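Severity: low
Component: inverse-folding endpoint
Summary: output formatting inconsistent between runs
Steps to reproduce: submit the following structure tokens with default settings.
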């Protein structure tokens, strides 16, 4: 039988590490500063390693603490998600959304500011994922996925067709008047979307350059950040590009768009029961947001 640390000690360690203070951790957990300190000292004694360095004003992770914290956070999150999925949330207005990391950061998170003003009674949890799982996880109320809509064990509701458009820094966009101007510019490639640049050049009646130019990243979010500092041109989904252009971070230099073979879908479990009122409200909002 594995010797597991006390769960209360682990919660105190996670909170103190995240907040940088025993006092703040105690306030969040409903404990005194002394109780949090005692819990962490007991945890360190059991493990035989110091996890936090104490100073007069704050605490900082040691090397052992930095190595241990990700596992603690993951375990606590999985336990919380499983508990809510099996027994329900104590807050009836809590809705958990999971979306691809780029859509979560670039589409959903910014729009949540206005949505929360309109629905202050709802508690939203936004989780992000780099790769789509094959099955819906317990504890996820709403899932947005990008793909072709064919995932086993779920019903996928399409949220509108997608296009692919080029984006870049506004200064670079001023130097691009026609598709041929893209040939000599550094291009940002996104893993999993390797066909985008060849297809885009083909749609513009241009021969794809023989040599790969630019860099390769693993998410659209990384591509956006690189393009935003003038690192090159990326091909992004139109829904993401429109929002980035509206806030001035990036520009769409050409009117030529390419139909995407992937679209966004709202997922439901096959045979699942009707969602509650809070989830239905969020689903309606997401349909408008991605529509």
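Observed output (run 2 of 3):
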């Amino acid at each position: 039988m594995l010797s597991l640390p006390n769960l209360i000690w682990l919660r105190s360690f996670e909170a103190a590490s995240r907040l940088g203070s025993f006092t703040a951790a105690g306030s969040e957990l409903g404990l005194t500063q002394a109780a949090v300190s005692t819990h962490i000292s007991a945890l360190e004694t059991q493990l035989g390693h110091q996890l936090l360095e104490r100073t007069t004003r704050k605490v900082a992770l040691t090397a052992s603490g930095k190595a241990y914290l990700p596992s603690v956070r993951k375990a606590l999150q999985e336990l919380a998600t499983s508990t809510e999925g099996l027994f329900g949330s104590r807050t009836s207005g809590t809705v958990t959304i999971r979306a691809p990391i780029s859509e979560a950061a670039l589409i959903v998170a910014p729009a949540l500011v206005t949505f929360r003003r309109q629905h202050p009674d709802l508690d939203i949890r936004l989780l992000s994922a780099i790769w789509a799982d094959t099955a819906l996880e317990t504890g996820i109320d709403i899932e947005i996925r990008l793909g072709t809509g064919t995932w086993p064990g779920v019903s996928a509701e399409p949220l509108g067709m997608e296009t692919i458009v080029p984006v870049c820094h506004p200064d670079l966009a001023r130097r691009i008047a026609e598709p041929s101007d893209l040939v000599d510019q550094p291009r940002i490639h996104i893993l999993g979307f390797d066909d985008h640049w060849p297809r885009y050049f083909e749609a513009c009646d241009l021969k794809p350059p023989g040599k790969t130019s630019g860099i390769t990243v693993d998410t659209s979010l990384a591509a956006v950040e690189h393009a935003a500092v003038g690192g090159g041109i990326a091909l992004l989904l139109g829904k993401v590009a429109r929002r980035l252009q509206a806030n001035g971070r990036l520009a769409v230099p050409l009117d030529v768009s390419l139909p995407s073979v992937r679209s966004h879908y709202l997922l439901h479990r096959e045979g699942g029961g009707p969602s509650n009122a809070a989830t239905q409200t969020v689903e309606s909002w997401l349909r408008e947001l991605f529509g």
